[in-house]
């Protein structure tokens, strides 16, 4: 029912062909007449071949067109399903199922049984692109009898005459004999073919099926992405969220209570934590969150719908990206919050107001990287190539952020050009600036007692707290001191460039999708050509 409702939004009948019943009643009639009532609660992927064919037919019948062309609608059906479908099409053409009368159904069939053959009204027999016969079904046997090719008794005419006009390549003699017979029958029909009758006075052509407008396309695709894809899509996002939380807990356990474990900045654990979250563990979630959405069965279904002109590629990308934003943000929050809470970095300094800025910076970074990976994934034909390209891009972004390789050791071109488009290069220095601020370091080092820093007071030896480490010097040592660590000297906050990059990626994603789709079409044309 959801599939029919989806198509009913996107395919509207012409004003002249509006049925007498409502859309819901028409859907109910089609479900009942085509025998789909038993599988209303079944996934489309779980339907049999016969049920899929009947569902596909029901979707096209919703348009209520005057001329219906079907290519092998009875493929993969047994004789009973074939008889049922052909009989239904006869009734539909005569005005059944709440539609109009006087409609035409043109369909191609594999050699049907004799019972199916007697149900059609007109027959067209083609061989090698040439007409062997075209006319009424009841005139077919007398026609071939007059041509000295009568159908034997107890033989299915469909099988016999199809074999009669088929090239036999078992031997050279058989090939020559069959080609001469086909040429003879084609020439005979050309001579006996009756001239076309006078078309009569001009009449209005059958109305075209209405293409859905932008609002209808948005509504249909939004319902498909947010409602019809459930619960499979919801289960997938829940799995991503659980994995993100588990990875976050692992990182938090490794970097547990950083202010107490490294109060003197001797091990650079604070920078190691940020680099791990941004470029190591965070990068492992990107293929799941981004690539899994661009190379799944939903994209294959979307390509089929776009080919049928149900909606545009831009509308599909826009709605799919819009629907995935809340779920993506929830996954990234599940990845950010537990690890940062376990490190204790938010509780440094006289106030604990660093939680929200950190979450904001990390959301900007991860969402920007997700948009970039989504753009690259649409440019790749498969999952493997998309994963390899994503790995190379993330590696380049992480190398120029300033932590794994010092800025002075980077080539000038990488430090000046690639760093500008690296979100990690823009986000890491502001995060490190707060962790290495004087008030934060004083508060964390005050609880640490230096054993060698002793003072004698009235014959009593007292151990004094360690002096506060120099955070500015530590950042300068790693080349992450603001504002020199930023790729460009800007007057606005450092999270603005990643946001601009994310918006640019979102704008380029439709272009990448269209480009990759055109490449697929060109590749298929070359295959068909050769």
Automatic annotation (TrEMBL):
<keyword id="KW-0813">Transport</keyword>
<keyword id="KW-0472">Membrane</keyword>
<dbReference type="InterPro" id="IPR043926">
    <property type="entry name" value="ABCG_dom"/>
</dbReference>
<protein>
    <recommendedName>
        <fullName>ABC transporter domain-containing protein</fullName>
    </recommendedName>
</protein>
<dbReference type="InterPro" id="IPR027417">
    <property type="entry name" value="P-loop_NTPase"/>
</dbReference>
<dbReference type="InterPro" id="IPR050352">
    <property type="entry name" value="ABCG_transporters"/>
</dbReference>
<feature type="transmembrane region" description="Helical">
    <location>
        <begin position="234"/>
        <end position="255"/>
    </location>
</feature>
<feature type="transmembrane region" description="Helical">
    <location>
        <begin position="314"/>
        <end position="338"/>
    </location>
</feature>
<dbReference type="Pfam" id="PF01061">
    <property type="entry name" value="ABC2_membrane"/>
</dbReference>
<feature type="domain" description="ABC transporter family G">
    <location>
        <begin position="112"/>
        <end position="165"/>
    </location>
</feature>
<dbReference type="InterPro" id="IPR013525">
    <property type="entry name" value="ABC2_TM"/>
</dbReference>
<feature type="transmembrane region" description="Helical">
    <location>
        <begin position="358"/>
        <end position="379"/>
    </location>
</feature>
<feature type="transmembrane region" description="Helical">
    <location>
        <begin position="386"/>
        <end position="405"/>
    </location>
</feature>
<keyword id="KW-0812">Transmembrane</keyword>
<dbReference type="GO" id="GO:0140359">
    <property type="term" value="F:ABC-type transporter activity"/>
</dbReference>
<dbReference type="Pfam" id="PF19055">
    <property type="entry name" value="ABC2_membrane_7"/>
</dbReference>
<feature type="transmembrane region" description="Helical">
    <location>
        <begin position="495"/>
        <end position="516"/>
    </location>
</feature>
<keyword id="KW-1133">Transmembrane helix</keyword>
<feature type="transmembrane region" description="Helical">
    <location>
        <begin position="275"/>
        <end position="293"/>
    </location>
</feature>
<feature type="domain" description="ABC-2 type transporter transmembrane">
    <location>
        <begin position="238"/>
        <end position="428"/>
    </location>
</feature>
<dbReference type="GO" id="GO:0005886">
    <property type="term" value="C:plasma membrane"/>
</dbReference>
């Amino acid at each position: 029912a959801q599939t029919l409702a989806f198509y009913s939004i996107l395919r509207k009948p012409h004003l002249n062909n509006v049925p007498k019943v409502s859309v819901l009643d028409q859907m109910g009639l089609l479900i009942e007449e085509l025998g789909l009532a038993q599988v209303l609660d079944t996934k489309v992927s779980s339907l049999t071949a016969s049920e899929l064919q009947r569902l596909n037919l029901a979707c096209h019948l919703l348009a209520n067109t005057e001329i219906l062309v079907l290519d092998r609608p009875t493929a993969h059906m047994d004789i009973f399903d074939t008889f049922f479908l052909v009989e239904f099409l006869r009734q539909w053409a005569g005005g059944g199922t709440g539609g109009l009368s006087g409609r035409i159904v043109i369909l191609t069939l594999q050699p049907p049984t004799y019972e199916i053959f007697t149900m059609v009204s007109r027959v067209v027999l083609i061989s090698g692109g040439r007409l062997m016969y075209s006319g009424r079904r009841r005139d077919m046997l007398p026609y071939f009898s007059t041509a000295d090719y009568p159908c034997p008794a107890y033989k299915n005419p469909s099988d016999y005459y199809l074999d009669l006009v088929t090239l036999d390549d078992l031997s050279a003699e058989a090939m020559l004999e069959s080609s001469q017979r086909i040429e003879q029958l084609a020439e005979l029909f050309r001579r006996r073919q009756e001239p076309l009758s006078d078309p009569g006075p001009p009449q209005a052509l059958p109305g075209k099926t209405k293409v859905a407008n932008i609002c209808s396309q948005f509504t249909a695709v939004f319902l498909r992405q947010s409602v019809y894809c459930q619960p499979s899509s919801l289960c997938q996002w829940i799995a991503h969220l659980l994995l993100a939380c588990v990875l976050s807990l692992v990182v938090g356990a490794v970097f547990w209570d950083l202010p107490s474990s490294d109060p003197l900045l001797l091990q650079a654990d604070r920078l190691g934590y940020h680099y791990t979250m941004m470029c190591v563990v965070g990068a492992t979630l990107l293929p799941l969150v981004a690539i899994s959405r661009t190379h799944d069965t939903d994209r294959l279904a979307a390509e089929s719908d776009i080919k049928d002109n149900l909606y545009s590629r831009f509308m599909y990308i826009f709605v799919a990206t819009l629907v995935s934003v809340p779920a993506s943000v929830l996954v990234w929050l599940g990845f950010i919050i537990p690890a940062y809470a376990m490190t204790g970095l938010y509780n440094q300094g006289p106030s604990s107001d660093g939680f929200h800025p950190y979450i904001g910076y990390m959301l900007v970074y991860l969402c920007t990287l997700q948009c970039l990976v989504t753009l690259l994934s649409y440019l790749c034909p498969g999952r493997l190539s998309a994963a390899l390209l994503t790995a190379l891009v993330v590696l380049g972004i992480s190398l120029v952020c300033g932590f794994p390789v010092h800025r002075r050791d980077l080539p000038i071109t990488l430090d000046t050009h690639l760093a500008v488009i690296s979100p990690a290069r823009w986000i890491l220095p502001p995060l490190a600036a707060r962790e290495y601020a004087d008030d934060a370091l004083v508060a964390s080092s005050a609880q640490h007692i230096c054993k060698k820093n002793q003072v004698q007071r009235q014959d009593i030896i007292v151990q004094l707290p360690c002096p506060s480490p120099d955070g500015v010097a530590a950042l300068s040592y790693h080349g992450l001191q603001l504002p020199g660590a930023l790729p460009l000297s800007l007057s606005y906050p450092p999270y603005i460039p990643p946001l601009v990059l994310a918006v640019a990626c979102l704008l380029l994603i439709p272009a990448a999708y269209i480009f990759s789709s055109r490449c697929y079409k060109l590749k298929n044309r070359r295959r068909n050509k050769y």
